[in-house]
Every structure is written in C-alpha cells, then in structure tokens.
Amino acid sequence: MPEPKVLLLHWNSGRWRAKDRAAQALTENSCESWIFAFGGDYLNTSRARPSDLSGYDIIIANSDPIHLEKLCALSASRPASCKWVTLLEGDALDYIKPRPFIRELLDSSDLVNCINKYTEGFFKKITSVPVRFIGFPYPAEGIRSLATPFDKRRKDIFLAPMLLSRWLEYIVVKDLGIPFYGYEKKITRTLRTLHKNFLRYGTNNSNYFLNIVHSIYKDPLLQMKKAAPLKDFFRHNGGAHIWLNMDHRYTWGRYVLDAAALQVPIIATRSTGQAEHFFPSTMIENEFEVEKAVDLIKKLFSDPEFYQEAASVPIERFDHLRPEVKKKELLEALYS
C-alpha cells in the first residue's frame, strides 16, 4: 500500500511536521515518535477542527483526559476513509474509575493502542474495537549516543519521577548516605503564559515548584534540578550511577527504556511492563518493596560485576521498538 498520511493529536502545544524537526527524531521518546516513524504531522488537540482531519489516512489521537469530549466529536466527524487510532494516555489505573466519554472514544476508533502489556485484557473488556499492545517507537541508537562511559559516572542516584509526583524514591534513599537528586518542573515565563501562570499559581517565579519541594521535603541533602530539554536530560542523567523508579503505574515505562538506552541500571517495578525485559536483575515486584530496593542499591554500589551485568543492555534488545517494526505492527493491526 502507498505510504499513509498520518496526523498525531496530543495536548502539547503547536502544529508542526516531521520533516521540519528531523533532529528531534534522534531522542524523541514520547508518543510524538509516531510522527517521525510515519513522516507525519502534529497538531495540538485543542486547536484541531474537523477540517484539519481532511486528507489524512490515519489519525493517532492521544486520549488526553482534558480532551475526551472533543476527541469523540473529532472522531465522529472524520472522513469515512480515515482510520482512527486511540493511543491510551497515562496510567491504566486512571481508567478503572468510570469517566465520561472514554468508552465512546474507544468505540468510535478503528484501533486502540494499549501502552502497557499487563492492561491489554482490561481494555478489551471496555470496547469491542480491536485493542493491541503496541506502544511507541523508541530511538534507542540516538539516545545511546548520549550515554556516559561507566568510568566517568558520578556516585549518585537519580530519583526518576518529578519530586512532587511522589516521594517513594526519596524515602528509600534518604538514609543511605549516598548523594541523590531529582527534578521538578519550572514555570515557563513567556508573554503568552504570564497571565495564565499568575491566575493559576499567583506568581511567575520559575522556581515556584522547586520552592514547594523544598518546603515539603525539608532536606538539605536533596539536590533539586529544574526540568531540562531531552538532550540535556540524557547527558546529565546518563552520568548517574543508578536510577530509582518505584512506579505504581501501569504505563509505558519511559524511564526504564531511557535507562536501558543509556546503560544505567535502574531499580524499577514490574508494573512498568519494561523492567523484566531490560532489567530483570534489578526489578522489584511493587512500589512497596522498599527493603529490596535498598538491598539492590547497596549491591549496585558495592559489586562492580553485578553493576556491569545489569548495565550492559545490548542495543539489539530494542529491536522490537524500532520505528520500522512499530510502524508495521500498527499498519497490520489497522488493515489486516
């Protein structure tokens, strides 16, 4: 079949084309990697109108919670020849509570792209539309090019989630005597966002969230960093000794993929759906196995052979996530 014309809808701002952002493809680890796999286009969902769907063969729509009603309307208005793929957003646990429009959106789709292997059966019970665990393409080679050699790494621990999203990781490491750090988002100050920020937060101080972290954690040993662009994120965090991700969610597991691409051992939960494939020796069963996490941290810092074995993820282990492989999976699920 001829190359399909693909549009991705998502809540990130803007409108752009893959051919205008070729460099981004080398590190894009989110759902936007689909744009580069197909050489497609991107459009912020809030800006999308039915007329914007004209001319596309496939619409991949991220099921952003704030846009469910609008996505239902857009799906219903798409051209008859256009295939609609709903890409499930976030944690599957968010879907176990009934919410308006989600079933309507899934039922109006041609395919539901499930992003966590443990949740495929659950979503198949919600809708009669085909549900497949496909996820995203992943640019492993581009991210690995930003990795830090083993002998140049710092002896510290990266706490993977944003610091205000949970503090499980901090609870695990705070008494170990090993340096640790984490990230929190910053307020972006532009002419377009000044008024909105002030209405929402009462300030335009870019350190607003870091100040909240400081007031809650009250720990001078916690090193706090502002969220950074992906290249900077990979370059800096590839220099950590290990990552820690006590994730309770059933989602795509990007932190595990990123750690594997950078060859940094990560202690991560089974629910990520990625840990058992990339890091079976440092996987924990659930987010409350804090004592096992502590023991693994100590072993990764004291046992060089164990560290080397855990960290040495061959690039071939990403073969199933290559853009051409994921693209083929999606097209076969849609047209076969």
Q: What structural category characterises the helix and strand content?
A: alpha/beta
Strand line-up in the sheet with most strands: 2-3-1-4-5-6-7
The CATH topology label of the largest domain is: Rossmann fold
Radius of gyration, taken over Cα atoms and rounded to an integer in Å: 21 Å
CATH superfamily of the largest domain: Glycogen Phosphorylase B
Shape: globular
Low-pLDDT regions: none
Number of structural units classed as domains: 2
Helix content: 25-40%
Secondary-structure element string: EEHEEHEHEHEHEHEHHEHEHEHEHHH
CATH hierarchy: architecture of the largest domain: 3-Layer(aba) Sandwich
Would you write up a description of this structure?
This protein has 336 residues and is α/β, with parallel strands linked by helices. The strands form two sheets. A seven-stranded mixed β-sheet has the order 2-3-1-4-5-6-7, sandwiched between helices. Strands 10-9-8-11-12-13 form a six-stranded parallel β-sheet, sandwiched between helices. The model has no long low-confidence stretch (mean pLDDT 94).
Short summary of the structure?
With about 325 residues, the chain is of the alpha/beta class. It has helices spanning about 35-40, 70-75, 100-105, 120-125, 140-145, 170-175, 195-200, 210-215, 230-235, 255-260, 275-280, 290-300, 305-310, 325-335, and strands spanning about 5-10, 15, 40-45, 60, 85, 110-115, 130-135, 155-160, 180-185, 220-225, 240-245, 265-270, 285.
